[in-house]
Amino acid sequence: xxxxxxxxxxxxxxxxxxxxSEIYKRYRKKFMNWTKFHYGxxxxxxxxxxxxxxxxxxxxxxTEKLTELQSxxxxxxxxxxxxxxxxxxxxxVKEINTEDFSLNESQDLTPWQLIEKNDDQLxxxxxxxxxxxxxxxxxxxxxxxxxxxxxxxxxxxYKNENVVKSKKLQCLNKLREIYQKEKDD
Length: 185
Hints:
This protein has nine helices and no strands. The protein is an all-alpha fold.
């Protein structure tokens, strides 16, 4: 349910578990993807930072440090997360996601080869960051923020979702080309 910023603040003041649950469900996935993409955090650490951000939001409302949101709730939560991350020494964690490999493939690879595959994934993220606009924004919004094509078109000022789909395909081809070229070198 879409609520106004004023309504969210008012509900947080009344200790409404419903609003905390709504905020949690609405922003968790986006926040987790954001921290993984920008900070390379593990899922567990991302979850901790998200929960800390929710707590600080709640605390700020209860102590009246926050009486009115000047930005969107998502922007405020992400800023809290950024502040939390800057105050703590979170280091990027390289995880080997065993779900990414078939059972047979995993059995055939040494631990060093698995780490190398994970490094390829991190390299891919670096390429996405360096690819430039509008590709960076389109791929980030689609794959990491889980925005629909329609939403991306609206946010980035494209005529419609079909234009975004076409542009995304061009960006993916560009990404594949750069990735393959660097891999071959």
